[in-house]
Amino acid sequence: MSTMTMRIDDADADIIRKYAKFEGKTISDFIRDAVFEKIEEQEDLATLRAAIAADDGTRYSHDQVLEELGL
């Protein structure tokens, strides 16, 4: 298992310690979760940007979708 070091000021460290404790997590678990949530948000943003770029403006009504699905 790897170890990573992060330098932050004492006030920020105190906030992180208190929030991790409030969440019932270790500091390591709290920071790992926060990092992966950030990565996931960036992946979602990239997917959204790609969808917007590929959007040809075609829209379907609710009834059209239901008909297409055979519902």
Describe this structure in words.
With 71 residues, the chain is mainly alpha-helical. The chain has a domain of 28 residues. 70% of the residues lie in helices and 0% in strands. Helix 1 packs across helix 2. The longest helix has 28 residues. The radius of gyration is 21 Å and the shape is elongated. The termini are far apart. The mean pLDDT is 95.
Characteristic terms for this protein:
mainly alpha, 3 helices
Estimate the helix proportion, in percent: over 70%
Q: Which structural class matches the secondary elements?
A: mainly alpha
Largest sheet: none
Low-confidence stretches: none
Query: Based on DSSP secondary structure assignment, what is the total number of beta strands?
Result: 0
- Helices and strands, in order, run as HHH
End-to-end distance = 51 Å
Shape: elongated
Sheet-strand content, in percent, reads under 5%
* Whole-angstrom Rg: 21 Å
Overall mean pLDDT score?
95
| Number of helical segments with 4 or more residues | 3
